[in-house]
Amino acid sequence: QVHVVESGGGLVQAGGSLRLSCGVSEGTFSTYVMAWFGQAPGKAREFVAAVSRSGVTTDYSDRVKGRFTMSRDNAKNTVYLQMNSLKPEDTAVYYCAAGTDKVWFGRRRFSVDEYDYWGQGTQVTVSS
């Protein structure tokens, strides 16, 4: 059973920073494409960022591009999301997801349906 656990959420003022972490137990971490999704109250879960298995390639939504940075440490079975210049509209529960390599092809990585394992989420609240 693969377990995905997020941490690092919290309350921050606009313009501030947070770093989210996501650990994966069981399985071979380096075989997973990893992603972050955000879900604001009353809205659908939406793609934020993804990183390839090697960590060399990343992709971001237009909304966070230039402000958020996703990385991974395969030796620690962990991915990170560095969130800078936070805005009130970034307020959401952030979920970490793991999927097989097929996720990286085409537009699959943007879809919640393509990921096999999910964490419980961590709340990020940005005050104005």
Describe this entry's structure for a reader.
The chain has 128 residues and is an all-beta fold. Helices cover 0% and strands 48% of the residues. The chain has no helices and 11 strands. The chain has strands spanning 3-7, 10-13, 18-25, 33-39, 46-51, 58-60, 68-73, 78-83, 92-99, 117-118, 122-127. The strands form 2 sheets. Strands 2, 4, 5, 6, 9, 10 and 11 form a 7-stranded mixed beta sheet that branches. A 4-stranded antiparallel beta sheet has the order 1-3-8-7, with no helix packed on it. It is globular and about 40 Å long. The relative contact order is 0.30. The mean pLDDT is 96.
Average of pLDDT: 96
Shape: globular
List the total number of helices: 0
What is the β-strand count? 11
Structural class: mainly beta
Largest sheet: 7 strands, mixed
- What percent of the residues sit in helical stretches (DSSP H or I)? under 10%
Q: Which regions have little confidence, pLDDT < 50, spanning 5+ residues?
A: none
Order of helices and strands: EEEEEEEEEEE
